Amino acid sequence: MPSPLRIAVLASGRGSNLAALLTARDRDELKAEFVLVASDRPDAGALRLAEAAAIPTLVLDPKAYPDRRAFDLELFGKLADSGAELIVLAGFMRILDGEAIAPWTGRMLNIHPSLLPKYRGLHTHRRALEAGDLEHGASVHFVTAELDGGPVLAQAVLPIEPGEDEQRLAQRLLPLEHRLLPAVVALVAQRRLVWRDGGPWLDGAPLGAPMRLSTQGLESA
Ligand code: GRF
To answer: What's the 15 CA to ligand 1 centre distance in angstroms?
Structure first.
């Protein structure tokens, strides 16, 4: 049995994806130790969740730093000090500096609410609706210097309903995000999903297409 994976989570908002990770841990579906929850916003709900779960927290104010690189170097320095083996971006609403995150290549995941490579960046639900897409979804990917651009590991797909608005689509997608993210993190914690030779490997072979979330869990494409 591998030892519990030491995880740090970065979040700017309410923290429902962090809550899903903690629930998975409590149900023994994810063998992890949460060593830090960090945020760029003192009012982030994620920080309150972490406090309630007795997880150390950190808030860094971007305005206190001369530029993005200075902020990110400080933040990722603190993350290294925390002993984290994996960083999970769960609604962390900042673009990251390539130099600061380079040491974390293959050790940092992000959840993004679109079927990447579609709709990198913001307003993904609106953009999917405006494009007339028939389906939408969420992706978990390894983070690289390119915004929402690293290798996609797994996706959850959701049919778009006729006439639904942005808010409803986001609301319907969220429960899928809450299954997708812990499932991918659990594979990393089991050391089944690893970064090797510049890309993701699953169970000893390069991961071809992203896995897909079904009612049974993650399935290979
Ligand atoms: C999620 O939709 C996530 O995909 C996106 O930001 C949102 C964060 O929600 N990147 P929460 O803070 O986890 O509730």
So the answer is: 7
* pLDDT per residue as tens digits for the range 10-34: 999 999 999 999 999 999 999 999 9
d(CA 77, CA 93): 19
Phi-psi region of 77 (alpha: psi -120 to 50; beta: other; left: phi over 0): alpha
Q: Is 172 in the pocket of ligand 1 (CB under 6 A)?
A: no
DSSP character at residue 66: S
- The structure's pTM equals 0.97
Residue nearest to atom 7 of ligand 1 (CA): 91
Six token digits for residue 211: 């896995």
Q: Is 91 in the pocket of ligand 1 (CB under 6 A)?
A: yes
Domain 5-219 CATH superfamily: Formyl transferase, N-terminal domain (3.40.50.170)
- Is the distance from the beta carbon of residue 89 to the nearest atom of ligand 1 less than 6 Å? no
Over residues 90-97, the mean pLDDT reads 96
